[in-house]
């Protein structure tokens, strides 16, 4: 038997009250975008769940794409069968024979959306359970925590069978929490910060500072490649390149060496905030992790933050490096991030940067 559809269960959308359909429609849009590479796949979403109709498309490929989409709690591949008792019975027997091994326990859970069907849910459970014993007399039924819970849903157009539950990415649909500017350096931390912001529904735009000839075309391509990696979690991400050479040279020439990093970061923050305002963003997101480098002490963060009243979100601020690396490897950005290209934050880095800069001196 070949899977005909995937039933998608929503995550936190169930808590969204009157805004529920707005969240569902955004999730539907994101699923359609991510699955657009499969021309025969059709997405239908209602208030309780979504249905991905495969129409002959390979299930494994579609499932891998679905695992990346935020707002999905889980999903189950389903078999579509003709809506009559004999056909349903035969399909249930075939599925259970395929999955059976010694000691396996099972349960039948029926749902009758079509109330004109000849059996109600309780009767159907008993009928189909007996059908399983006909072909697998040694199998054990178990009502709580069975190895296989075979779900049978009777809808208007057909019957659907499913037993697998695959975990989704969770979180909220990208775009439901507003827009944010991601300060994307090209290192390990900022793409992870972007990923975590996407998971909470933020529609991000990547802002990358380039200082040629001090930074190379390779560094720019690296940041662009990282942005592309993040698109699989919810859709297009605009990449904004900021030419930063003249500003960095001016800072290098006129500022005290110990304050070079602080002043560079303050200018980056100012410029990002101007871009945010122009593009109707609500927040700025960066990959700062507390205490990891000199510019990421609390005193440094306060001095850098002082240039804007815009909220600054730091999704990885309390994580250690190994935790961040684990996520980077999971989302497939780590190998790109460790490519040996310098970025704006490292080219003029002082030997002894100020770790407790005074705002008055900035």
From TrEMBL:
Q: Has keyword Secreted?
A: no
Localization per record: Cytoplasm
> Per UniProt, what is one GO molecular function of this protein?
ATP binding
Where does it mainly reside?
A: cytoplasm
Pathway where this protein functions: Cofactor biosynthesis; thiamine diphosphate biosynthesis
Mind listing the GO biological process terms from this record?
A: thiamine biosynthetic process; thiamine diphosphate biosynthetic process; thiazole biosynthetic process; tRNA 4-thiouridine biosynthesis
Record's catalysed reaction(s): [ThiI sulfur-carrier protein]-S-sulfanyl-L-cysteine + a uridine in tRNA + 2 reduced [2Fe-2S]-[ferredoxin] + ATP + H(+) = [ThiI sulfur-carrier protein]-L-cysteine + a 4-thiouridine in tRNA + 2 oxidized [2Fe-2S]-[ferredoxin] + AMP + diphosphate; [ThiS sulfur-carrier protein]-C-terminal Gly-Gly-AMP + S-sulfanyl-L-cysteinyl-[cysteine desulfurase] + AH2 = [ThiS sulfur-carrier protein]-C-terminal-Gly-aminoethanethioate + L-cysteinyl-[cysteine desulfurase] + A + AMP + 2 H(+)
Q: Which CDD domains match?
A: PPase_ThiI, THUMP_ThiI
Report the residue ranges that make up the THUMP domain in this protein.
Answer: 60-165
Answer yes or no on keyword Zinc-finger: no
Q: Cellular component terms, GO, for this chain's entry?
A: cytosol
Supply the EC number(s): 2.8.1.4
Which class of enzymes does this protein belong to? transferase
Keyword tags: ATP-binding, Cytoplasm, Nucleotide-binding, RNA-binding, Thiamine biosynthesis, Transferase, tRNA-binding
Task: Summarize where ATP binds, as residue positions.
Answer: 183-184, 208-209, 265, 287, 296
Tell me the HAMAP family matching this sequence.
ThiI (MF_00021)
Q: What does this protein do?
A: Catalyzes the ATP-dependent transfer of a sulfur to tRNA to produce 4-thiouridine in position 8 of tRNAs, which functions as a near-UV photosensor. Also catalyzes the transfer of sulfur to the sulfur carrier protein ThiS, forming ThiS-thiocarboxylate. This is a step in the synthesis of thiazole, in the thiamine biosynthesis pathway. The sulfur is donated as persulfide by IscS.
Known NCBIfam families for this protein? tRNA uracil 4-sulfurtransferase ThiI
**Classification via PANTHER family:** TRNA SULFURTRANSFERASE (PTHR43209)
Sequence similarity: Belongs to the ThiI family.
What is the recorded name of this protein? Probable tRNA sulfurtransferase
Gene name for this UniProt entry: thiI
């Amino acid at each position: 038997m070949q899977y005909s559809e995937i039933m998608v269960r929503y995550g936190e959308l169930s808590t969204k009250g009157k805004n529920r359909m707005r969240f569902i429609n955004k999730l539907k849009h994101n699923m359609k975008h991510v699955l657009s590479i499969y021309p025969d796949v059709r997405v239908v979403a209602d208030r309780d769940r979504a249905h991905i109709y495969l129409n002959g498309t390979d299930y494994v490929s579609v499932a891998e794409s679905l695992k990346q989409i935020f707002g999905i709690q889980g999903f189950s591949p389903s078999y579509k069968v003709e809506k009559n008792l004999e056909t349903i019975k035969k399909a249930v027997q075939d599925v259970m024979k395929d999955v059976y091994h010694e000691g396996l326990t099972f349960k039948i859970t029926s749902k009758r959306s079509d109330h004109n069907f000849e059996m109600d849910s309780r009767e159907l459970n008993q009928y189909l359970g007996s059908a399983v014993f006909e072909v697998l007399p040694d199998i054990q039924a178990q009502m709580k925590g069975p190895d296989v819970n075979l779900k049978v849903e009777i809808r208007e157009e057909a019957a659907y069978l499913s037993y697998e539950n695959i975990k989704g990415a969770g979180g909220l649909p990208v775009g439901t929490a507003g827009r944010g500017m991601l300060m994307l350096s090209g290192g390990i931390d900022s793409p992870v910060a972007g990923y975590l912001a996407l998971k909470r529904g933020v529609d991000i735009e990547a802002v990358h500072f380039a200082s040629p000839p001090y930074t190379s075309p390779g560094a720019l391509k690296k940041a662009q490649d990282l942005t592309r990696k993040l698109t699989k979690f919810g859709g297009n991400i605009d990449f904004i390149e900021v030419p930063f050479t003249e500003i960095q040279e001016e800072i290098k020439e006129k500022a005290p060496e110990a304050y070079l990093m602080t002043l560079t970061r303050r200018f980056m923050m100012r410029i990002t905030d101007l871009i945010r305002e122009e593009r109707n963003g609500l927040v700025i997101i960066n990959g700062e992790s507390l205490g990891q480098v000199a510019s990421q002490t609390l005193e440094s963060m306060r001095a850098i933050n002082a240039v804007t009243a815009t909220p600054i979100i730091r999704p990885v601020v309390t994580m250690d490096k190994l935790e961040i690396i684990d996520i980077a490897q999971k989302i497939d950005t780590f190998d790109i991030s460790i490519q040996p290209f310098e970025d704006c934050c490292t080219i003029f880095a002082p030997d002894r940067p100020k770790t407790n800069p005074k705002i008055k001196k900035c």
